[in-house]
């Protein structure tokens, strides 16, 4: 960095002042003050670059050349607009004449003037189409094989042309003045007053261009102000969104910490609540069962049923215990193998025979006693 650049950077200020001036020097760049704070060397680089470019990013020499080109372009544009305006005004004069002669009788001299002007315009337009300029291909074929010299033969007589040229400035001035007064009435309707003198109207008309120019400058100023406000609004919006994101993150962390702290108490309260609710439901079920029994049976019957249920429950428990004991013995018997299984079958067969013989002996004994 040179001494001049270092001096420039030092004169910009420090801290927030430097950041604000850098942001103002590059309004089109999507950077924030936080970016400049985190990158101080980049901030100094932008501060150095700011003395070589303008807010649009153009260098000083290029800006000068651009201004010269724009001035030249504006000069050429004014010249073209002046020629085009006169040409349009002449066409409007011929059109007004065509409309006027269909509604009223036109003096012969005026009729000759407008016909001569119309022919001159048509011939000039045709010659412009037939005569190629320096930017076109001169070898291209002409339209219908015509040449500009042939079109010049269609011009009106020299005397009529001279008369037309003498009267043309006066008629053109009158037509343009009428259009200017119409523009004045459109731009400032409150100025329209038939009783005003011609001089007063001309005075107001002479100030019209200055007023339009002031309005144009005012519109450009408002446009520039609107652009600056838009850039400022965009920057403030980014800052607001950044701060809002930070607030949301902080709020999320607070919510998470608070939720972790109260989660244990909340779970315990929920557990107590569900236990109490389950107990209440069980009590309600018991109550409903008692009501159903009372509606179905008498009190003595319910007491008998209760005793029967107790007796059956005890018998069921005893049977289950016996069943479990028998299953254990059976399992121990199965461990002895197939030989023991054959002995068990033989034992069962003998038991059956003994039971049958015992029953038969009992019956025989009873019959003998009778």
Radius of gyration: 58 Å
Main sheet summary: none
How would you spell out the order of helices and strands?
A: HHHHHHHHHHHH
Regions with little confidence, pLDDT below 50 for 5+ residues: 1-15
Percent helix: over 70%
Shape: elongated
Average predicted confidence as pLDDT: 78
Structural class: mainly alpha
- Rounded to the nearest angstrom, the distance between the terminal CA atoms is 146 Å
Give the helix tally. 12
- Strand content is under 5%
**Quaternary status:** single chain
What does this structure look like?
The protein is mostly helical and 370 residues long. Among the domains are: 3-57, no CATH class; 61-132 and 145-206, no CATH class; 337-370. It has helices at residues 3-12, 16-25, 33-38, 40-49, 60-103, 108-130, 148-152, 158-187, 198-206, 208-296, 299-334, 338-369. The longest helix is centred in the last third of the chain and has 89 residues, at 208-296.
């Amino acid at each position: 960095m040179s001494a001049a650049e270092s001096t420039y950077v030092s004169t910009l200020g420090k801290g927030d002042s430097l950041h604000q001036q850098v942001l103002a020097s590059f309004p089109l760049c999507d950077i924030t003050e936080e970016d400049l704070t985190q990158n101080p060397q980049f901030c100094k680089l932008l501060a150095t670059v700011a003395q070589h470019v303008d807010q649009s990013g153009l260098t000083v020499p290029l800006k000068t050349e651009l201004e010269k080109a724009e001035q030249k372009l504006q000069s050429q544009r004014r010249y073209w607009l002046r020629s085009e305006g006169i040409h349009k005004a002449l066409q409007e004069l011929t059109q007004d004449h065509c409309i006027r002669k269909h509604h009223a009788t036109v003096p012969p001299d005026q009729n000759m003037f407008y016909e001569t002007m119309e022919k001159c315009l048509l011939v000039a337009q045709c010659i412009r189409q037939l005569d190629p300029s320096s930017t076109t291909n001169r070898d291209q074929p002409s339209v219908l094989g015509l040449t500009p010299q042939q079109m010049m033969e269609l011009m009106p007589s020299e005397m009529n042309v001279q008369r037309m040229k003498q009267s043309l400035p006066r008629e053109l001035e009158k037509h343009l003045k009428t259009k200017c007064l119409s523009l004045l009435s459109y731009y400032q309707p409150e100025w329209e007053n038939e009783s005003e003198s011609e001089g007063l109207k001309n005075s107001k008309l002479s100030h019209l261009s200055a007023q339009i120019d002031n309005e144009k400058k005012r519109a450009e100023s408002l446009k520039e102000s609107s652009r600056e406000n838009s850039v400022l609004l965009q920057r403030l919006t980014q800052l607001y969104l950044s701060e809002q994101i930070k607030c949301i993150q902080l709020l999320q962390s607070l919510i998470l910490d608070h939720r972790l702290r109260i989660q244990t108490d909340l779970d315990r309260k929920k557990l107590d609540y569900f236990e109490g609710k389950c107990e209440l439901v069980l009590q309600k079920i018991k109550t409903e069962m008692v009501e159903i029994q009372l509606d179905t049976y008498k009190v003595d019957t319910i007491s008998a049923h209760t005793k029967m249920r107790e007796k059956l429950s005890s018998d069921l428990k005893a049977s289950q215990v016996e069943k479990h004991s028998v299953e254990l013995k059976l399992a121990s018997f199965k461990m002895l193998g197939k030989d023991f299984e054959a002995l068990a079958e033989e034992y069962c067969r003998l038991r059956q025979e003994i039971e049958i013989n015992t029953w038969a002996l009992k019956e025989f004994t009873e019959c003998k006693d009778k």
